[in-house]
Specification:
Length: about 200
Amino acid sequence: MRKPFPNMHWLAGAAIAALLATAGSARADIVDEATTVCKAKATVAQFDQLLTANDMRSYHKLVDAKTKVGDCKPLKARTDVKIEKNEGDLACVRAKGDTRCSWMLETALRITSERREPVRQDYFACKSPLYLDTGRKIMAENDQEAIKRFRSATSQSGQCLTLPKGEQVDVEKRKDKIFCVRPPGEDECYWTDNLALPPNI
């Protein structure tokens, strides 16, 4: 059984500056889950905003509308693609037979050079990038009561867990400066940032 994630005072100061460091690039060229790709980057950016807001009704409505007029199309899971551009959380990919790349959310991609890496210091990881972002902000403020409440709530709900120093994790996805890693014994990957992993992975 995993323990609640530990006190992380080291997130202050130099560690916060490290959050801004650029993560090493990792090639991702398999679609890990069925998704939608679009001609316009702005359309996919709208998808991302709606998903972040958990507005699934508006998201599906927009996907249907854009697909009907030919601006977007579905892309099946396990499709091999070539990544031609990366901008923030978005990637422009070209599947076999396509004459141009189409934009999609990078979270639907898998790192094909998937590998096992050691956790370099006690850290935490969450099922959702939103929980990870919330946790990092709370840690950065160094409010011990807020940290304790966040730790307790997310541990009890199973949304976040501890990554102990030295544990080997499978790196499965990358989204800008964060990574989705699967600890031993877990059926799904959890999002963490580059502070938890060796530099330049």
